[in-house]
């Protein structure tokens, strides 16, 4: 067993870990990057990039089917599943290659391979070959998809999104458990590529939406196209021949058993912190076993340990992981002179059709932080001009602002071009614009963004009608 000494040890070489490593090095500290698996971020290997490749193929197929609505009639549509998956894997490998090439450019003496486990607040053991002694640490170990043990017992046909992107061909059928971002994105994409798909949701949630009025719209939009069964849980999974027998139970207790080639578990992800020996660090941990940390500094308590990315279970998104890693690495380098880093306005996008986006403070958050102190504006896209022109006239935008100050707080949306609109509105939140200032901005015609103006105009009207009671939070806007 050899011993290595360094100033900063970064555990995990994903997006947060790589960014943390570079930040600590930029801070002038000797830094060691530890990875137990293959190099290549979750986003590049099995996450955002390969999923968008599959979604793009699905969009191409859907465009051909939808063309008749414009009076344009294509010939017979043929989906070559092997060709679809070959392109997904090829482009995915290209993206992964860029990440691996970046890591390979780091000095060899800065990298070590193996599983890290804390022996004390200042020592790690890497597998059975190395002990690392360090002054400061960054935990950036990522997360893993959740698969209940009773499902996994049914065999290799119970999969996660990780396995989807290693398929050689598209299957005949897939059951999807979960109506979150991953379940809806992959479920709709596979459906549009000719796969028989059923999506089971234990409750009534749709991706990251919390606004109840928007949830109603979103559920209708999803069930218009997909076999989505809300308030229905998977209660039993059995191997049957080369496939699976999936038994579900609806809200009335009715059981239904159906055959599928695969069951995709998309019920969430678990931070990879439970095999790190955190009990040897002295850190306070929450009921999930995650170290309690400061969201502005990423510091765990007052220790020299920082946590970043999916490992801290805050916002499991690549941009957030990069920001976390930068803050954690910078503060690890400057410890004990720890300082708050830049936390950007929350922005989350689900690439279904219609697209789903939330930005700034959500409806659920405002019900806690701004009870009785925020107004709501809305617009439906059913009759919005440009949306009807494109035959994408589904969805709704709900926008929120603070009484008295008129400051724009956030929005939730399902509708066309939401990925673009979400960015514009997130910038408005971070710039701390008022609704009046936003309405002074230019709007072209005809564009989907005119719907934003309609929603803001409605919001401006609602702001003129504050509640009768005295509102104590005159300016308690969430920090940008």
From TrEMBL:
Binding-site residues for FAD, renumbered to this chain: 52, 141-143, 310
Catalytic residues, chain numbering: 445 (proton acceptor)
EC number(s) on file: 1.8.1.4
Keyword list, A-Z: FAD, Flavoprotein, NAD, Nucleotide-binding, Oxidoreductase
Organism superkingdom: Bacteria
Disulfide cross-links: 43-48
Positions annotated to bind NAD(+): 178-185, 268
Record has Acetylation as a keyword: no
Domain FAD/NAD(P)-binding, first and last residues per copy: 7-322
Pfam families, sorted: Pyr_redox_2, Pyr_redox_dim
Annotated Pyridine nucleotide-disulphide oxidoreductase dimerisation domain residues: 349-455
GO molecular function: dihydrolipoyl dehydrogenase (NADH) activity; flavin adenine dinucleotide binding; NAD(P)H dehydrogenase (quinone) activity
Principal EC category: oxidoreductase
Annotated PANTHER family: MERCURIC REDUCTASE, PYRIDINE NUCLEOTIDE-DISULFIDE OXIDOREDUCTASE RCLA-RELATED
Membership in a protein family: Belongs to the class-I pyridine nucleotide-disulfide oxidoreductase family.
Protein name: Dihydrolipoyl dehydrogenase
């Amino acid at each position: 067993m050899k011993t290595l000494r360094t100033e900063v040890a970064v555990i995990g070489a994903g997006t947060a870990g790589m960014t943390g490593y570079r930040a600590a090095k930029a801070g002038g500290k000797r830094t060691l990057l530890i990875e137990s698996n293959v190099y290549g971020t979750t986003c590049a290997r099995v996450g955002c990039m390969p999923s968008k490749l599959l979604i793009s193929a699905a969009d191409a197929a859907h465009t051909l089917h939808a063309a008749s609505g414009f009076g344009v009639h294509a010939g017979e549509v043929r989906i070559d599943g092997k060709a679809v998956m070959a392109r997904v894997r090829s482009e995915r490998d290209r993206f992964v290659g860029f990440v691996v090439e970046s890591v390979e450019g780091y000095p060899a003496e800065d990298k070590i391979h193996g599983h890290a486990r804390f022996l004390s607040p200042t020592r790690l053991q890497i597998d059975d070959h190395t002990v690392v002694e360090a002054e400061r640490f960054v935990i950036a170990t990522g997360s893993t998809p959740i698969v209940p043990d009773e499902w996994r017992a049914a065999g290799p046909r119970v999969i996660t999104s990780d396995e989807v992107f290693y398929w050689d061909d598209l299957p005949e059928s897939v059951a999807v458990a979960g109506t979150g971002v991953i379940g809806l994105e992959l479920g709709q994409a596979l459906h549009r590529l000719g796969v028989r798909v059923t999506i089971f949701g234990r409750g009534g949630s749709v991706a990251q939406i919390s606004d109840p009025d928007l949830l109603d719209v979103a559920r209708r939009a999803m069930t218009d196209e997909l076999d989505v069964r809300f308030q229905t849980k998977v209660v039993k999974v059995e191997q049957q021949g080369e496939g699976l027998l999936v038994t579900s139970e609806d809200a009335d207790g009715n059981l239904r058993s159906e055959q599928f080639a695969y069951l995709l578990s998309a019920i969430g992800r678990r931070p990879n912190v439970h095999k790190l020996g955190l009990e040897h660090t002295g850190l306070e941990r929450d009921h999930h076993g995650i170290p309690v940390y400061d969201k502005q500094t990423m510091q765990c308590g007052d220790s020299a340990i920082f946590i970043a990315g999916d490992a801290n279970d805050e916002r499991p998104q690549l941009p957030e992981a990069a920001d976390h890693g930068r803050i954690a690495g910078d503060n690890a380098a400057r410890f004990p002179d720890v300082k708050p880093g830049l936390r950007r306005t929350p922005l989350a996008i689900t690439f279904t059709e219609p697209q789903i986006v939330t930005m700034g403070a959500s409806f659920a958050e405002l019900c806690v932080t701004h009870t009785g102190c925020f107004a709501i504006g809305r617009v439906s896209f059913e009759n919005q001009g440009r949306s009807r022109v494109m035959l994408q006239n589904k969805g709704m935008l709900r926008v929120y602002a603070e009484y008295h100050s008129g400051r724009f707080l956030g929005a939730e949306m399902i509708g066309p071009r939401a990925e673009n609109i979400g960015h514009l509105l997130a910038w408005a939140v971070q710039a701390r614009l008022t609704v009046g200032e936003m309405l002074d901005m230019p709007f072209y015609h005809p564009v989907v963004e005119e719907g934003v103006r309609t929603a803001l105009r409605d919001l401006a009207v609602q702001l003129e009608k504050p509640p009768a009671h005295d509102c104590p939070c005159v300016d308690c806007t969430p920090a940008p």
